[in-house]
Amino acid sequence: MILKPIPLALYIHIPWCVRKCPYCDFNSHEALVSAPEQAYVDALLADLEQDLPRVWGRRISSVFFGGGTPSLFSAESLERLLSGLRARLPLRPDLEVTLEANPGTVERGKFAEFREIGINRLSIGIQSFSDDQLQRLGRVHDRRDAFAAAEAAHATGFENFNLDLMFGLPGQTVEQADADIANAIALQPAHLSYYQLTIEPNTAFHHSPPILPDDETADAIQQSAQAQLAQQGYQRYEVSAYARDNRRCQHNLNYWEFGDYLGIGAGAHGKLSDLAAGRINRLWKIKHPRDYLERAGTPAGIGGDNRIGEADLPVEFLLNALRLVEGVPAALFGERTGLALTALEPSLSRARERGLLAANPERLRPTELGLRFLNDLLQQFL
Predict the structure, then answer these.
(1) In this model, does residue 253 exceed pLDDT 90?
(2) Domain count of the chain?
(3) Are 104 and 32 found together in one domain?
(4) Is residue 301 part of a domain?
(5) Cα 226 versus chain centre, distance
(6) What is the pLDDT of residues 30-89, one digit of tens each?
(7) Of the candidates 254, 278, 306, which is a domain's last residue?
(8) What is the CATH number of the domain that holds 349?
(9) What is the pLDDT of residues 312-371, one digit of tens each?
(10) Residues 111 and 184 in one domain
């Protein structure tokens, strides 16, 4: 088998936010006073430095600042971090650099500064345009802030920005969800992420769960949204992602196509492949920001480093690839795992017989039924 280069992305986790949302199970922590920006940037650069021997000679294809709320950091701090990255690793000339942002008034004023330092994509966490729902979700912004943030993104030259929107919210009807979609479309984002609210363990909602729409209503909401978005030129390319003018999120595509990524920051995860040696490892950093600040860049800053077993690789690959509406070329399985696809033939045949996987043997692609019942499709390979 000819081994082709595997793309490499960089994820940077900034764990602080203004308030912890009751549905959030991410590694995020309320900044009770202010986040220690300079110390954390120092820690991130030390973390990156320690990871360099794992990726010598490889070029970074995308950078994603996630959180938490990374836009709480100043443009000066993020510029120092990006400069440190450029000094240590080669970058693609068309590098996509995404920053997650919340629509708070203070942060909107920073959008022009973020643009100037090389951030070329924003992902704005709107979640809903209903003030009642925003209060239930524990968000720190309101409907007016949501509109103002998108308008500020346009005004400061961000042609490529995403809006995060949620559905299946407490008590939500199809009509209310349709109104959210209409408001999002009116703001003309290049990309829309449309996620169903789920109740995750270790969240406030898990301990005091709200009443959510039933499965039939949630399905009707999603089907209605898909129709509206398609009519307005938003192509659905992943289970929860829609894009105009081919503005697909390159960073997330790398995940779904089982590419490699470095993860720096408190609790950040990475995946690195050495197929010549027959090895793919998952690496993660220690989780609590206080511990991370003390130990980043040292062996004690590594939370874990595990090799993915050969028996687990097919499912790991398919868990990502089958989220894509167009799927992936069948040959990509071997290129990204080093394994032969023939070992999966019984499971592939079963999925095709059930109408969950397209019949084309040259492509691993879910059918429309397979996308709607993705868990059933994935179950065929477990």
Answers:
(1) yes
(2) 2
(3) yes
(4) no
(5) 20
(6) 876 677 999 999 999 999 999 999 999 899 999 999 999 999 999 999 999 999 999 999
(7) 254
(8) 1.10.10
(9) 999 999 999 999 999 999 999 999 999 999 889 999 999 999 999 999 999 999 999 999
(10) yes
Residues 81 and 194 in one domain: yes
Average pLDDT of the residues of the chain: 94
| 177 and 325 co-located in one domain | no
The Cα–Cα gap between 231 and 158 comes to 23
Q: Are both 222 and 96 inside the same structural domain?
A: yes
Q: State the average pLDDT over residues 169-194.
A: 98
Cα four-point dihedral sign 145, 147, 153, 156: negative
**Residue 61: which domain range?**
8-254
Q: At residue 2, does pLDDT exceed 60?
A: no
How many angstroms separate the CA atoms of 318 and 332, rounded? 11
In a domain, 274, yes or no: no
Cis preceding linkage at 157, omega within 30: no
